[in-house]
Amino acid sequence: MKPDYPGATWRPAAAENFSSRPSRTQIDAVVLHATAGGLSGTLAWFANPSSGVSAHYVVAKNGQIYQMVEEKDRAHHAGLSEYQGRDNFNNFSIGIEIVNLNDGVDPYPEAQFEAVVDLVSYLSEKYNIQKEWVVTHAQTSQKLTGKTDPRNFATEELLRRVYDPLANLPVDVVREAAWNALGIPFNPIAAFPRYAREHNLGNPETEEFDFTHAGVDYRGQGFSQGIVFARVGDWRNLQELVW
After folding, report:
1. Where exactly does CATH 3.40.80.10 map onto the chain?
2. What strand order describes the sheet that includes 239-242?
3. What is the pLDDT at residue 189?
4. Radius of gyration, CA atoms only, the chain
5. What tens digit of pLDDT does each residue of 69-106 get?
6. How far apart, in whole angstroms, are the C-alpha atoms of residue 215 and residue 1?
7. From the DSSP assignment, how many helices (H) and strands (E) are in the chain?
8. Sheet strands (E) in the chain
9. Which residues of the chain fall below pLDDT 50?
């Protein structure tokens, strides 16, 4: 069987542990879980026909992703569930199990977190899943069954990475990319004032100005305590000259 998610390894759950989704069901949610155990035990438990449970995906500590149930099918991962007026999340969600002891101490390594980000990004784009419907097992089931997983997982950071990836991107990175797209060297507007603030050079006294020395083109700006300048096109290597 070829996995739905590129790069995943297919490890099928027992046929008894999943079922067909209700007719005309639209997949529009993701439920995040923690396994409360290790990888091998989780894979074996989902493959055991007596367990009755499964998930679509299992994400290992090293970032490897295993698919155990086809996305079109109904994995048995959410159990008794209700959130924001909807119930029986198994019907319309994709279940992702993240390998973790769920004791609030066991860490989620960077490789694992990045793999979850990539997987949720893929699912959200494929099924047009809205931000509010990427939820945790605790959100859907804590009131009903006491579920707490995935404890201490950076869910808000995950959502920011998936749905607002440019939120914390530095302005100068965006500006440089825009200038480069035009084939023009990065214009360091604001770079000189920022440097002046960081080095206590006072307030601006001049506009930006260009000059040439020894055949090299420079741009600078004067401040009350000195001049900030750089070679044109080498805006990351600012220098200062005190008045």
Report:
1. 9-163
2. 209-213, 216-223, 226-231, 239-242
3. 59
4. 26
5. 999 999 999 999 999 999 999 999 999 999 999 999 99
6. 65
7. 6, 14
8. 9-10, 18-20, 29-34, 57-59, 65-67, 73-75, 82-83, 86-87, 93-98, 134-136, 209-213, 216-223, 226-231, 239-242
9. none
> CA angle, corner 84, sides to 31 and 36, nearest 5?
30
Greatest CA span in the chain, whole angstroms? 81
Q: Which residue reads 């805006």 in tokens? A: 235
221: CB partners within 8 A, 6+ apart: 192, 193, 196, 204, 206, 207, 208, 209, 227, 228, 229
Q: Which residues are catalytic?
A: 97
Domain 9-163 class?
alpha beta
Task: Supply 121's token pair.
Answer: 């990004």
- Provide the whole-model pTM: 0.72
Structure confidence at residue 209 (pLDDT) = 87
